[in-house]
Design a protein that fits this description.
The protein contains seven helices and 33 strands. It is globular and about 75 Å long. Bound molecules: alpha-D-glucopyranuronic acid.
Protein backbone atom coordinates (compact mmCIF):
# COMPACT_ATOMS: atom_id res chain seq x y z
CA UNK A 1 0.00 0.00 0.00
CA UNK A 2 2.47 2.51 1.05
CA UNK A 3 5.04 1.68 -1.56
CA UNK A 4 3.29 4.31 -3.66
CA UNK A 5 4.20 7.07 -1.25
CA UNK A 6 7.76 6.21 -2.09
CA UNK A 7 6.84 6.95 -5.71
CA UNK A 8 5.29 10.25 -4.60
CA UNK A 9 8.54 11.44 -3.03
CA UNK A 10 10.54 10.28 -6.04
CA UNK A 11 8.02 11.80 -8.45
CA UNK A 12 7.97 15.21 -6.87
CA UNK A 13 11.75 15.11 -6.69
CA UNK A 14 11.79 14.23 -10.39
CA UNK A 15 9.15 16.87 -11.20
CA UNK A 16 6.52 14.31 -12.30
CA UNK A 17 2.91 14.97 -11.21
CA UNK A 18 1.49 12.88 -8.38
CA UNK A 19 -1.24 11.64 -10.68
CA UNK A 20 1.15 9.15 -12.36
CA UNK A 21 0.96 6.88 -9.35
CA UNK A 22 -1.78 7.58 -6.87
CA UNK A 23 -0.06 7.22 -3.46
CA UNK A 24 -2.04 5.09 -1.02
CA UNK A 25 -2.05 5.41 2.73
CA UNK A 26 -3.73 2.40 4.25
CA UNK A 27 -5.93 3.09 7.24
CA UNK A 28 -3.81 0.94 9.45
CA UNK A 29 -5.10 0.87 13.02
CA UNK A 30 -1.77 2.01 14.53
CA UNK A 31 -1.76 5.11 12.45
CA UNK A 32 -3.19 8.28 13.81
CA UNK A 33 -6.19 8.66 11.55
CA UNK A 34 -8.20 11.85 11.73
CA UNK A 35 -11.51 11.40 9.97
CA UNK A 36 -12.79 14.24 7.80
CA UNK A 37 -16.03 12.36 7.13
CA UNK A 38 -19.33 14.05 7.84
CA UNK A 39 -20.92 17.15 6.34
CA UNK A 40 -19.08 19.00 3.60
CA UNK A 41 -20.36 22.16 1.94
CA UNK A 42 -20.83 21.83 -1.79
CA UNK A 43 -21.42 23.83 -4.93
CA UNK A 44 -22.82 22.27 -8.09
CA UNK A 45 -20.92 23.71 -11.07
CA UNK A 46 -22.68 22.50 -14.25
CA UNK A 47 -20.81 24.92 -16.55
CA UNK A 48 -17.37 24.17 -15.05
CA UNK A 49 -16.72 27.77 -14.02
CA UNK A 50 -15.39 26.93 -10.54
CA UNK A 51 -11.78 26.49 -11.61
CA UNK A 52 -11.66 29.87 -13.36
CA UNK A 53 -13.54 31.43 -10.44
CA UNK A 54 -10.92 29.82 -8.18
CA UNK A 55 -13.40 28.19 -5.84
CA UNK A 56 -10.36 26.49 -4.27
CA UNK A 57 -9.51 29.77 -2.55
CA UNK A 58 -12.74 29.50 -0.53
CA UNK A 59 -12.81 33.29 -0.73
CA UNK A 60 -15.05 35.57 1.31
CA UNK A 61 -16.06 39.12 0.41
CA UNK A 62 -13.73 41.34 2.45
CA UNK A 63 -15.88 44.46 2.24
CA UNK A 64 -19.04 45.86 0.68
CA UNK A 65 -17.36 46.41 -2.72
CA UNK A 66 -15.70 43.00 -2.93
CA UNK A 67 -17.23 40.79 -5.69
CA UNK A 68 -17.26 37.12 -4.65
CA UNK A 69 -20.05 35.07 -6.27
CA UNK A 70 -19.91 31.94 -4.13
CA UNK A 71 -19.77 31.18 -0.44
CA UNK A 72 -19.22 27.65 0.77
CA UNK A 73 -20.24 28.48 4.34
CA UNK A 74 -23.67 29.53 3.14
CA UNK A 75 -23.97 26.59 0.75
CA UNK A 76 -25.86 23.31 1.33
CA UNK A 77 -24.07 20.22 2.64
CA UNK A 78 -23.53 16.67 1.49
CA UNK A 79 -22.54 13.71 3.64
CA UNK A 80 -19.12 12.23 3.07
CA UNK A 81 -18.73 9.36 2.38
CA UNK A 82 -21.64 9.25 0.01
CA UNK A 83 -22.70 10.00 -3.56
CA UNK A 84 -24.66 13.17 -4.35
CA UNK A 85 -27.20 11.41 -6.63
CA UNK A 86 -28.92 9.48 -3.82
CA UNK A 87 -28.59 12.30 -1.27
CA UNK A 88 -30.22 15.11 -3.27
CA UNK A 89 -33.33 14.45 -5.38
CA UNK A 90 -32.42 17.23 -7.82
CA UNK A 91 -28.97 15.69 -8.31
CA UNK A 92 -30.20 12.19 -9.09
CA UNK A 93 -29.37 12.52 -12.78
CA UNK A 94 -26.57 15.08 -12.31
CA UNK A 95 -23.24 14.40 -14.03
CA UNK A 96 -20.56 17.06 -13.91
CA UNK A 97 -18.38 18.90 -11.41
CA UNK A 98 -19.32 19.44 -7.78
CA UNK A 99 -17.01 21.40 -5.47
CA UNK A 100 -16.71 20.21 -1.88
CA UNK A 101 -15.33 22.25 1.02
CA UNK A 102 -14.38 21.16 4.52
CA UNK A 103 -12.89 23.40 7.19
CA UNK A 104 -11.07 21.70 10.07
CA UNK A 105 -8.47 22.47 12.68
CA UNK A 106 -5.28 20.54 13.16
CA UNK A 107 -2.62 20.43 15.89
CA UNK A 108 0.84 20.09 14.37
CA UNK A 109 3.34 17.73 16.00
CA UNK A 110 7.10 17.37 15.75
CA UNK A 111 8.62 14.65 13.51
CA UNK A 112 5.23 13.73 12.03
CA UNK A 113 4.38 13.50 8.31
CA UNK A 114 0.78 14.11 7.33
CA UNK A 115 -1.23 12.86 4.37
CA UNK A 116 -4.79 13.44 3.22
CA UNK A 117 -6.23 10.15 1.99
CA UNK A 118 -9.34 9.34 -0.06
CA UNK A 119 -10.81 5.82 -0.16
CA UNK A 120 -12.41 6.67 -3.52
CA UNK A 121 -14.00 9.59 -5.41
CA UNK A 122 -15.99 9.25 -8.65
CA UNK A 123 -14.60 10.07 -11.16
CA UNK A 124 -12.00 12.87 -11.64
CA UNK A 125 -10.82 14.89 -8.62
CA UNK A 126 -8.75 18.01 -8.05
CA UNK A 127 -7.67 18.50 -4.44
CA UNK A 128 -6.65 21.78 -2.76
CA UNK A 129 -5.49 22.54 0.78
CA UNK A 130 -5.72 26.11 2.08
CA UNK A 131 -6.01 27.30 -1.54
CA UNK A 132 -2.94 25.37 -2.72
CA UNK A 133 -3.26 22.61 -5.34
CA UNK A 134 -2.22 19.17 -4.03
CA UNK A 135 -2.91 17.17 -7.17
CA UNK A 136 -5.44 15.32 -9.30
CA UNK A 137 -6.80 11.79 -9.42
CA UNK A 138 -8.61 9.88 -12.13
CA UNK A 139 -10.67 6.73 -11.48
CA UNK A 140 -13.79 6.35 -9.38
CA UNK A 141 -13.04 3.27 -7.28
CA UNK A 142 -9.43 3.26 -6.07
CA UNK A 143 -7.80 5.09 -3.17
CA UNK A 144 -5.39 8.01 -3.47
CA UNK A 145 -3.63 10.44 -1.17
CA UNK A 146 -1.34 13.45 -1.05
CA UNK A 147 1.38 14.41 1.43
CA UNK A 148 0.54 17.68 3.17
CA UNK A 149 3.43 17.87 5.65
CA UNK A 150 4.48 21.51 5.75
CA UNK A 151 1.31 22.54 3.94
CA UNK A 152 -1.18 21.88 6.71
CA UNK A 153 -1.50 24.75 9.21
CA UNK A 154 -1.30 24.48 12.97
CA UNK A 155 -4.90 25.52 13.62
CA UNK A 156 -7.47 26.29 10.93
CA UNK A 157 -7.35 24.61 7.53
CA UNK A 158 -9.73 24.08 4.64
CA UNK A 159 -9.83 21.40 1.99
CA UNK A 160 -11.54 22.03 -1.33
CA UNK A 161 -12.11 19.10 -3.68
CA UNK A 162 -13.61 19.30 -7.15
CA UNK A 163 -15.18 15.95 -8.07
CA UNK A 164 -16.40 15.55 -11.65
CA UNK A 165 -18.27 12.41 -12.75
CA UNK A 166 -18.85 13.55 -16.31
CA UNK A 167 -18.44 10.57 -18.65
CA UNK A 168 -15.77 10.78 -21.34
CA UNK A 169 -15.00 8.63 -24.41
CA UNK A 170 -11.34 8.28 -23.34
CA UNK A 171 -12.13 7.46 -19.69
CA UNK A 172 -12.32 4.11 -17.83
CA UNK A 173 -15.22 3.33 -17.87
CA UNK A 174 -16.16 5.27 -20.98
CA UNK A 175 -19.55 6.72 -22.05
CA UNK A 176 -21.75 3.68 -21.57
CA UNK A 177 -22.45 1.59 -18.46
CA UNK A 178 -25.37 -0.39 -17.13
CA UNK A 179 -24.88 1.03 -13.62
CA UNK A 180 -25.66 4.39 -12.08
CA UNK A 181 -22.84 6.90 -12.37
CA UNK A 182 -22.90 7.89 -8.69
CA UNK A 183 -20.69 10.93 -8.24
CA UNK A 184 -18.88 12.31 -5.23
CA UNK A 185 -16.57 11.57 -2.33
CA UNK A 186 -17.99 8.07 -2.09
CA UNK A 187 -15.54 6.66 0.47
CA UNK A 188 -13.75 7.84 3.63
CA UNK A 189 -11.61 10.97 3.67
CA UNK A 190 -9.00 10.98 6.43
CA UNK A 191 -5.79 12.65 7.56
CA UNK A 192 -3.07 10.11 8.28
CA UNK A 193 -0.07 10.87 10.48
CA UNK A 194 3.14 8.90 9.99
CA UNK A 195 6.54 8.95 11.65
CA UNK A 196 9.31 10.41 9.48
CA UNK A 197 10.37 6.91 8.52
CA UNK A 198 7.43 4.57 8.22
CA UNK A 199 6.30 1.24 6.78
CA UNK A 200 4.91 2.26 3.43
CA UNK A 201 3.84 -1.08 2.03
CA UNK A 202 4.27 -4.81 2.41
CA UNK A 203 3.21 -8.12 0.94
CA UNK A 204 3.05 -11.16 3.18
CA UNK A 205 1.83 -14.52 1.86
CA UNK A 206 2.76 -18.14 1.31
CA UNK A 207 5.59 -18.60 -1.16
CA UNK A 208 4.30 -19.79 -4.55
CA UNK A 209 3.60 -23.55 -4.46
CA UNK A 210 4.49 -23.89 -0.74
CA UNK A 211 2.38 -24.41 2.40
CA UNK A 212 5.18 -23.92 4.91
CA UNK A 213 7.20 -21.04 3.52
CA UNK A 214 6.17 -17.42 3.97
CA UNK A 215 7.54 -14.88 1.53
CA UNK A 216 7.05 -11.22 0.93
CA UNK A 217 8.61 -7.82 1.28
CA UNK A 218 8.42 -4.62 3.26
CA UNK A 219 9.04 -1.15 1.89
CA UNK A 220 9.99 1.69 4.21
CA UNK A 221 9.61 5.32 3.28
CA UNK A 222 11.80 8.07 4.61
CA UNK A 223 14.77 5.93 5.56
CA UNK A 224 18.03 6.85 3.92
CA UNK A 225 20.02 3.89 5.22
CA UNK A 226 19.53 0.22 6.01
CA UNK A 227 17.08 -0.29 8.82
CA UNK A 228 15.86 -3.18 10.96
CA UNK A 229 12.31 -4.41 10.37
CA UNK A 230 10.80 -6.96 12.74
CA UNK A 231 8.10 -9.25 11.46
CA UNK A 232 5.89 -11.21 13.85
CA UNK A 233 3.08 -13.76 13.70
CA UNK A 234 2.69 -14.23 17.45
CA UNK A 235 0.15 -17.06 17.19
CA UNK A 236 2.54 -19.06 14.99
CA UNK A 237 5.57 -18.26 17.12
CA UNK A 238 7.17 -16.33 14.28
CA UNK A 239 9.44 -13.37 15.02
CA UNK A 240 12.03 -12.37 12.43
CA UNK A 241 14.18 -9.30 12.03
CA UNK A 242 15.50 -8.36 8.62
CA UNK A 243 17.46 -5.39 7.28
CA UNK A 244 16.27 -3.15 4.50
CA UNK A 245 18.54 -2.16 1.65
CA UNK A 246 19.47 1.47 1.03
CA UNK A 247 16.17 1.95 -0.82
CA UNK A 248 14.25 0.90 2.27
CA UNK A 249 13.19 -2.49 0.96
CA UNK A 250 13.53 -5.83 2.74
CA UNK A 251 12.65 -9.29 1.42
CA UNK A 252 11.05 -11.81 3.77
CA UNK A 253 11.43 -15.59 3.43
CA UNK A 254 11.04 -17.97 6.37
CA UNK A 255 9.35 -21.24 7.33
CA UNK A 256 6.13 -21.16 9.34
CA UNK A 257 3.54 -23.73 10.36
CA UNK A 258 0.26 -22.00 9.54
CA UNK A 259 -3.37 -23.06 9.31
CA UNK A 260 -4.46 -22.45 5.73
CA UNK A 261 -7.23 -19.93 4.98
CA UNK A 262 -10.25 -21.29 3.11
CA UNK A 263 -14.02 -20.63 2.91
CA UNK A 264 -14.57 -23.49 5.34
CA UNK A 265 -11.84 -22.19 7.64
CA UNK A 266 -11.20 -18.45 7.11
CA UNK A 267 -8.25 -18.39 9.47
CA UNK A 268 -6.66 -14.96 9.79
CA UNK A 269 -3.41 -14.36 11.66
CA UNK A 270 -2.49 -11.17 13.43
CA UNK A 271 0.68 -9.95 11.73
CA UNK A 272 2.87 -7.22 13.24
CA UNK A 273 5.54 -5.24 11.41
CA UNK A 274 7.77 -2.82 13.32
CA UNK A 275 10.48 -0.51 12.05
CA UNK A 276 11.95 2.28 14.18
CA UNK A 277 9.08 4.07 15.89
CA UNK A 278 6.61 2.70 13.39
CA UNK A 279 4.41 -0.36 13.97
CA UNK A 280 1.74 -1.94 11.78
CA UNK A 281 -0.83 -4.63 12.60
CA UNK A 282 -2.77 -6.49 9.97
CA UNK A 283 -4.99 -9.58 9.74
CA UNK A 284 -3.79 -11.90 7.01
CA UNK A 285 -4.88 -15.30 5.80
CA UNK A 286 -2.44 -17.71 4.17
CA UNK A 287 -3.58 -19.85 1.22
CA UNK A 288 -2.38 -20.85 -2.23
CA UNK A 289 -4.38 -20.46 -5.45
CA UNK A 290 -3.48 -21.92 -8.84
CA UNK A 291 -4.96 -23.71 -11.84
CA UNK A 292 -4.36 -27.21 -13.18
CA UNK A 293 -5.98 -27.80 -16.55
CA UNK A 294 -9.64 -26.82 -16.17
CA UNK A 295 -9.50 -26.87 -12.38
CA UNK A 296 -8.90 -24.09 -9.88
CA UNK A 297 -6.92 -25.37 -6.88
CA UNK A 298 -7.25 -23.71 -3.48
CA UNK A 299 -4.53 -24.98 -1.13
CA UNK A 300 -3.82 -27.67 -3.69
CA UNK A 301 -7.39 -28.99 -3.84
CA UNK A 302 -9.92 -28.47 -6.67
CA UNK A 303 -12.63 -25.99 -5.70
CA UNK A 304 -15.98 -25.18 -7.32
CA UNK A 305 -16.86 -21.48 -7.07
CA UNK A 306 -20.48 -21.11 -5.91
CA UNK A 307 -20.82 -17.43 -6.66
CA UNK A 308 -22.97 -14.40 -7.33
CA UNK A 309 -22.18 -11.13 -9.10
CA UNK A 310 -22.90 -7.91 -7.24
CA UNK A 311 -22.75 -4.14 -7.56
CA UNK A 312 -21.65 -1.85 -4.71
CA UNK A 313 -25.11 -0.39 -4.14
CA UNK A 314 -26.53 0.09 -0.66
CA UNK A 315 -29.46 -2.20 0.08
CA UNK A 316 -32.76 -0.39 0.88
CA UNK A 317 -31.14 3.06 1.33
CA UNK A 318 -29.81 3.01 -2.25
CA UNK A 319 -26.80 4.91 -3.55
CA UNK A 320 -23.16 3.83 -3.42
CA UNK A 321 -22.58 1.37 -0.58
CA UNK A 322 -19.75 2.27 1.79
CA UNK A 323 -20.58 1.28 5.36
CA UNK A 324 -19.51 -1.85 7.19
CA UNK A 325 -23.20 -2.59 7.57
CA UNK A 326 -23.75 -2.36 3.80
CA UNK A 327 -20.98 -4.89 3.26
CA UNK A 328 -22.37 -7.21 5.96
CA UNK A 329 -25.86 -7.10 4.47
CA UNK A 330 -24.71 -7.78 0.90
CA UNK A 331 -22.20 -10.51 1.76
CA UNK A 332 -24.70 -11.87 4.28
CA UNK A 333 -27.16 -12.48 1.42
CA UNK A 334 -24.41 -14.11 -0.63
CA UNK A 335 -23.63 -16.38 2.31
CA UNK A 336 -27.37 -17.16 2.71
CA UNK A 337 -27.40 -18.21 -0.95
CA UNK A 338 -24.71 -20.76 -0.10
CA UNK A 339 -21.90 -18.88 -1.87
CA UNK A 340 -18.19 -19.41 -1.29
CA UNK A 341 -17.38 -16.82 -3.99
CA UNK A 342 -18.47 -13.30 -5.02
CA UNK A 343 -17.78 -11.44 -8.25
CA UNK A 344 -17.45 -7.76 -7.27
CA UNK A 345 -18.48 -5.92 -10.44
CA UNK A 346 -17.43 -3.98 -12.49
CA UNK A 347 -15.02 -1.90 -10.42
CA UNK A 348 -13.00 -2.39 -7.18
CA UNK A 349 -15.46 -2.35 -4.27
CA UNK A 350 -14.54 -0.77 -0.96
CA UNK A 351 -11.92 -2.23 1.34
CA UNK A 352 -14.71 -2.95 3.83
CA UNK A 353 -15.96 -5.56 1.37
CA UNK A 354 -12.68 -7.41 0.75
CA UNK A 355 -11.69 -7.37 4.43
CA UNK A 356 -15.11 -8.73 5.36
CA UNK A 357 -14.75 -11.42 2.67
CA UNK A 358 -11.46 -12.36 4.36
CA UNK A 359 -13.26 -12.80 7.67
CA UNK A 360 -16.32 -14.56 6.22
CA UNK A 361 -14.34 -16.91 3.99
CA UNK A 362 -15.71 -15.69 0.65
CA UNK A 363 -13.44 -15.91 -2.38
CA UNK A 364 -13.35 -12.70 -4.44
CA UNK A 365 -13.19 -11.75 -8.13
CA UNK A 366 -12.10 -8.07 -8.26
CA UNK A 367 -12.38 -6.10 -11.51
CA UNK A 368 -11.36 -2.79 -13.07
CA UNK A 369 -14.02 -0.91 -15.09
CA UNK A 370 -12.69 -1.67 -18.58
CA UNK A 371 -16.32 -2.16 -19.55
CA UNK A 372 -17.85 -2.66 -23.01
CA UNK A 373 -16.17 -0.35 -25.57
CA UNK A 374 -13.43 2.08 -24.57
CA UNK A 375 -10.82 4.18 -26.38
CA UNK A 376 -8.47 1.24 -27.02
CA UNK A 377 -5.89 3.08 -29.09
CA UNK A 378 -5.52 6.04 -26.74
CA UNK A 379 -2.26 5.75 -24.72
CA UNK A 380 -3.73 7.89 -21.91
CA UNK A 381 -6.66 5.49 -21.62
CA UNK A 382 -4.26 2.55 -21.39
CA UNK A 383 -2.20 4.33 -18.71
CA UNK A 384 -5.41 5.14 -16.83
CA UNK A 385 -6.49 1.48 -16.92
CA UNK A 386 -2.99 0.43 -15.80
CA UNK A 387 -3.16 2.90 -12.90
CA UNK A 388 -6.52 1.57 -11.77
CA UNK A 389 -5.23 -2.00 -12.09
CA UNK A 390 -2.11 -1.06 -10.12
CA UNK A 391 -4.11 0.55 -7.33
CA UNK A 392 -6.70 -2.22 -7.14
CA UNK A 393 -3.86 -4.74 -6.67
CA UNK A 394 -1.84 -2.52 -4.34
CA UNK A 395 -4.82 -2.03 -2.01
CA UNK A 396 -5.81 -5.69 -1.72
CA UNK A 397 -2.62 -7.69 -2.31
CA UNK A 398 -2.69 -8.95 1.28
CA UNK A 399 -6.31 -10.14 1.14
CA UNK A 400 -6.50 -13.96 1.13
CA UNK A 401 -10.09 -13.75 -0.15
CA UNK A 402 -9.05 -12.09 -3.42
CA UNK A 403 -8.07 -14.84 -5.89
CA UNK A 404 -8.94 -13.31 -9.28
CA UNK A 405 -7.98 -10.00 -10.87
CA UNK A 406 -10.36 -9.24 -13.75
CA UNK A 407 -9.12 -6.98 -16.53
CA UNK A 408 -12.41 -6.25 -18.30
CA UNK A 409 -16.07 -7.04 -18.94
CA UNK A 410 -17.76 -7.77 -22.29
CA UNK A 411 -15.29 -6.01 -24.55
CA UNK A 412 -15.51 -6.26 -28.36
CA UNK A 413 -13.27 -8.74 -30.18
CA UNK A 414 -10.97 -6.49 -32.25
CA UNK A 415 -7.18 -6.19 -32.61
CA UNK A 416 -6.74 -2.88 -30.76
CA UNK A 417 -8.71 -4.27 -27.80
CA UNK A 418 -6.56 -7.38 -27.70
CA UNK A 419 -3.36 -5.32 -27.73
CA UNK A 420 -4.73 -3.21 -24.88
CA UNK A 421 -5.83 -6.14 -22.73
CA UNK A 422 -2.69 -8.17 -23.44
CA UNK A 423 -0.68 -5.29 -21.96
CA UNK A 424 -2.97 -5.17 -18.94
CA UNK A 425 -2.52 -8.91 -18.41
CA UNK A 426 1.26 -8.49 -18.50
CA UNK A 427 1.07 -5.58 -16.06
CA UNK A 428 -1.14 -7.60 -13.70
CA UNK A 429 1.32 -10.52 -13.70
CA UNK A 430 4.21 -8.20 -12.95
CA UNK A 431 2.29 -6.62 -10.08
CA UNK A 432 1.11 -9.91 -8.60
CA UNK A 433 2.33 -13.28 -9.84
CA UNK A 434 0.47 -15.17 -7.11
CA UNK A 435 -3.16 -14.60 -8.17
CA UNK A 436 -5.18 -15.62 -11.24
CA UNK A 437 -5.93 -13.29 -14.13
CA UNK A 438 -9.35 -13.36 -15.75
CA UNK A 439 -11.86 -11.35 -17.79
CA UNK A 440 -15.61 -11.65 -18.47
CA UNK A 441 -16.05 -12.37 -22.18
CA UNK A 442 -19.29 -12.69 -24.15
CA UNK A 443 -18.37 -13.39 -27.75
CA UNK A 444 -18.89 -17.03 -28.72
CA UNK A 445 -18.87 -18.86 -32.05
CA UNK A 446 -21.97 -20.69 -33.14
CA UNK A 447 -20.69 -24.19 -33.86
CA UNK A 448 -24.13 -25.59 -34.82
CA UNK A 449 -27.63 -24.72 -33.48
CA UNK A 450 -26.92 -26.12 -30.01
CA UNK A 451 -23.20 -25.53 -29.57
CA UNK A 452 -21.40 -22.36 -28.62
CA UNK A 453 -17.62 -22.12 -28.46
CA UNK A 454 -15.73 -19.52 -26.48
CA UNK A 455 -12.74 -18.79 -28.70
CA UNK A 456 -12.17 -15.10 -27.94
CA UNK A 457 -8.39 -14.58 -28.53
CA UNK A 458 -8.20 -12.84 -25.16
CA UNK A 459 -8.46 -16.29 -23.55
CA UNK A 460 -4.82 -16.94 -24.41
CA UNK A 461 -3.64 -14.31 -21.91
CA UNK A 462 -5.91 -15.40 -19.06
CA UNK A 463 -5.58 -18.06 -16.36
CA UNK A 464 -9.34 -18.40 -15.94
CA UNK A 465 -12.02 -17.78 -18.58
CA UNK A 466 -15.11 -15.78 -17.64
CA UNK A 467 -18.18 -16.08 -19.86
CA UNK A 468 -21.33 -13.97 -19.75
CA UNK A 469 -24.24 -15.64 -21.54
CA UNK A 470 -27.83 -14.52 -21.52
CA UNK A 471 -29.48 -17.55 -23.13
CA UNK A 472 -33.17 -17.30 -22.34
CA UNK A 473 -33.16 -13.53 -21.84
CA UNK A 474 -31.32 -11.59 -24.60
CA UNK A 475 -31.42 -14.54 -27.00
CA UNK A 476 -33.25 -17.88 -27.21
CA UNK A 477 -35.72 -19.24 -24.70
CA UNK A 478 -34.96 -20.58 -21.24
CA UNK A 479 -35.61 -24.17 -22.29
CA UNK A 480 -33.09 -23.90 -25.18
CA UNK A 481 -30.48 -24.36 -22.46
CA UNK A 482 -31.50 -28.01 -22.20
CA UNK A 483 -29.82 -28.74 -25.54
CA UNK A 484 -27.04 -26.15 -25.44
CA UNK A 485 -23.45 -27.29 -25.27
CA UNK A 486 -20.64 -24.93 -24.30
CA UNK A 487 -17.05 -25.41 -25.42
CA UNK A 488 -13.90 -23.39 -25.01
CA UNK A 489 -10.77 -23.27 -27.16
CA UNK A 490 -8.48 -23.47 -24.15
CA UNK A 491 -7.79 -26.13 -21.57
CA UNK A 492 -8.49 -23.60 -18.82
CA UNK A 493 -11.05 -23.29 -16.01
CA UNK A 494 -14.33 -21.68 -17.05
CA UNK A 495 -16.51 -19.50 -14.82
CA UNK A 496 -20.01 -18.68 -16.11
CA UNK A 497 -19.63 -15.13 -14.88
CA UNK A 498 -23.11 -13.90 -15.83
CA UNK A 499 -26.57 -15.19 -16.75
CA UNK A 500 -29.97 -14.11 -15.51
CA UNK A 501 -33.46 -12.75 -16.12
CA UNK A 502 -35.38 -9.71 -14.92
CA UNK A 503 -38.45 -9.46 -12.74
CA UNK A 504 -39.61 -7.03 -10.08
CA UNK A 505 -40.20 -8.71 -6.72
CA UNK A 506 -43.75 -9.99 -6.36
CA UNK A 507 -44.69 -9.90 -10.02
CA UNK A 508 -46.18 -13.23 -10.98
CA UNK A 509 -47.41 -14.90 -14.15
CA UNK A 510 -46.89 -17.80 -16.52
CA UNK A 511 -43.52 -19.58 -16.71
CA UNK A 512 -42.89 -18.06 -20.16
CA UNK A 513 -44.07 -14.60 -19.22
CA UNK A 514 -41.18 -12.14 -19.09
CA UNK A 515 -40.81 -9.82 -16.13
CA UNK A 516 -42.27 -12.39 -13.71
CA UNK A 517 -40.72 -14.37 -10.88
CA UNK A 518 -41.89 -17.54 -12.59
CA UNK A 519 -39.89 -16.69 -15.73
CA UNK A 520 -36.78 -16.01 -13.61
CA UNK A 521 -37.23 -19.31 -11.72
CA UNK A 522 -37.73 -21.17 -14.99
CA UNK A 523 -34.61 -19.65 -16.50
CA UNK A 524 -32.48 -20.52 -13.47
CA UNK A 525 -33.73 -24.12 -13.46
CA UNK A 526 -32.84 -24.63 -17.13
CA UNK A 527 -29.51 -22.82 -16.71
CA UNK A 528 -28.51 -24.96 -13.73
CA UNK A 529 -29.32 -28.17 -15.63
CA UNK A 530 -27.21 -26.89 -18.55
CA UNK A 531 -24.28 -25.81 -16.35
CA UNK A 532 -24.05 -29.24 -14.73
CA UNK A 533 -23.13 -30.66 -18.16
CA UNK A 534 -20.19 -28.32 -18.92
CA UNK A 535 -16.96 -30.29 -18.29
CA UNK A 536 -14.60 -27.34 -17.78
CA UNK A 537 -17.02 -25.39 -15.57
CA UNK A 538 -15.31 -24.54 -12.29
CA UNK A 539 -17.71 -21.89 -11.04
CA UNK A 540 -20.50 -19.43 -11.67
CA UNK A 541 -21.58 -15.94 -10.61
CA UNK A 542 -25.10 -15.32 -11.90
CA UNK A 543 -26.24 -11.80 -12.65
CA UNK A 544 -27.02 -10.48 -10.00
CA UNK A 545 -27.41 -10.40 -6.22
CA UNK A 546 -29.67 -7.33 -5.94
CA UNK A 547 -31.67 -5.11 -8.29
CA UNK A 548 -29.61 -1.97 -8.96
CA UNK A 549 -30.07 1.45 -10.52
CA UNK A 550 -29.27 1.71 -14.20
CA UNK A 551 -29.67 4.65 -16.58
CA UNK A 552 -30.55 2.17 -19.38
CA UNK A 553 -33.67 0.56 -17.87
CA UNK A 554 -36.87 2.46 -18.60
CA UNK A 555 -39.89 0.13 -18.45
CA UNK A 556 -42.47 1.95 -16.32
CA UNK A 557 -43.84 0.06 -13.33
CA UNK A 558 -41.29 -2.71 -13.88
CA UNK A 559 -37.79 -1.28 -14.26
CA UNK A 560 -38.11 2.46 -13.43
CA UNK A 561 -34.33 2.91 -13.83
CA UNK A 562 -33.58 -0.39 -12.10
CA UNK A 563 -32.00 -3.45 -13.61
CA UNK A 564 -34.29 -6.10 -12.10
CA UNK A 565 -32.09 -9.18 -12.57
CA UNK A 566 -31.49 -9.31 -8.84
CA UNK A 567 -32.33 -12.41 -6.81
CA UNK A 568 -33.04 -9.89 -4.07
CA UNK A 569 -34.94 -6.66 -4.69
CA UNK A 570 -33.36 -3.29 -3.90
CA UNK A 571 -35.53 -3.35 -0.77
CA UNK A 572 -34.11 -6.69 0.38
CA UNK A 573 -37.04 -8.91 -0.64
CA UNK A 574 -35.94 -12.39 -1.74
CA UNK A 575 -37.35 -13.46 -5.11
CA UNK A 576 -38.31 -17.13 -5.68
CA UNK A 577 -35.25 -17.77 -7.88
CA UNK A 578 -33.09 -17.07 -4.80
CA UNK A 579 -34.16 -20.45 -3.39
CA UNK A 580 -33.54 -22.19 -6.73
CA UNK A 581 -29.90 -21.16 -6.74
CA UNK A 582 -29.61 -21.75 -2.97
CA UNK A 583 -30.84 -25.33 -3.42
CA UNK A 584 -28.28 -25.95 -6.20
CA UNK A 585 -25.43 -24.58 -4.08
CA UNK A 586 -26.52 -26.71 -1.14
CA UNK A 587 -26.44 -29.76 -3.43
CA UNK A 588 -22.88 -28.93 -4.51
CA UNK A 589 -21.74 -28.20 -0.97
CA UNK A 590 -23.25 -31.36 0.51
CA UNK A 591 -22.65 -33.47 -2.61
CA UNK A 592 -26.25 -34.64 -2.34
C1 LIG B 1 -24.09 -7.39 -19.06
C2 LIG B 1 -23.18 -6.60 -18.17
C3 LIG B 1 -23.85 -6.14 -16.94
C4 LIG B 1 -25.29 -5.81 -17.26
C5 LIG B 1 -25.96 -7.11 -17.63
C6 LIG B 1 -27.42 -6.91 -18.02
O1 LIG B 1 -23.68 -8.56 -19.25
O2 LIG B 1 -21.96 -7.18 -17.86
O3 LIG B 1 -23.17 -5.02 -16.48
O4 LIG B 1 -25.93 -5.23 -16.19
O5 LIG B 1 -25.36 -7.66 -18.74
O6 LIG B 1 -27.66 -6.70 -19.19
O7 LIG B 1 -28.27 -6.99 -17.16
Amino acid sequence: MRRLLFFLVILTAAGCSASDFYPLIQNIPDRTIISLDGSWHFIVDPYETGLKARFYLNAKAKNKQDLVEYDFDKSDVLNVPGDWNSQKKDLFFYEGPVWYEKSFSYRQREHVRVFVSFGGANYFSRVYLNGEALGEHEGGFTPFSFEITGKIHDGDNFLVVEVNNARRRDAVPALNTDWWNYGGLTRDVVLVEEPETYIQDYVIQLAKGSYEEVSGWVQLEGSTSAQQVTFEIPEAGVKKTVSTDAAGRAELHFPAKLELWSPAHPKLYKVILSAGSDKVHDSIGFRTIETRGTQILLNGKPIFLRGISMHEEAPVRGGRAFTQQDAETLLGWARELGCNFVRLTHYPHSENMTRLADRMGLLVWSEIPVYWDIDWENPATLQNAKNQLHDMIARDHNRASVILWSLSNETPVKPERLTFLRQLAEAARQLDSTRLITSAMNHVDEAGPDTRTLSDPLGEYLDVLGLNEYLGWYWGRPEDADRMQWKTTWDKPLIMSEFGAETPYGRHGALDQRWTEEYQVNLYQHQIAMLKKIPSLTGLSPWVLTDFHSPRRFLPGIQDYYNRKGLVSNLGQHKQAFSVLQKYYREIETGK
